[in-house]
Amino acid sequence: MTDTIQQNKYVELKYKVVDAKTGHFLTGVDFPLGYVHGVNDVLSPQVMAELDGKAASDTIAVELDCNKLFGPRDESLVITDYIENVPEAYREVGTTIVMENDRGDTKTFLVTRIDEKTLTIDGNNPLCGRQVIFQLEILAVRDATDAEIATGGKVVAQPKLSGVKPVPL
Fold this sequence. Notes:
Layout (H helix, E strand, L loop, with lengths): L8 E11 L5 E12 L8 H7 L7 E7 H5 L7 E5 L13 E5 L5 E9 L3 E5 L8 E13 L2 H6 L18
Antiparallel strand pairs: 1-2, 1-8, 3-8, 4-7, 5-6, 6-7
């Protein structure tokens, strides 16, 4: 009997995200992403619902409106400044910058553009404002162990190290 995805099943899958309008690849994972279904909601609720009842080797495609997931794009979260005002460590497209406001709230920004004079960061989720298609390939479905259910994912034993003394804290 084939295991199907349901509550407390350990699932491994790979996925990619494609722009629904252009068909361009946006992001994905090529290594197995493992989780316990119904315990650790690693993907959007709509994707998780579509996985219910599927089995290993099944593939599915789920179209998502990212405005519903992340809210509408907020142009006030796009900031451009002169490059000389930005520390050298942040002067590369794709760099993430965590900023904190006066209340201690943090927000992650991504460096999205650099030219000779300016650097632009964006605090919107990179999928914001897009219609995307999640293409998922289910690699494995099995009963989760009690430890996996408790943690929401695969439990890996710590390596046994010989000749290593613990460092006092």
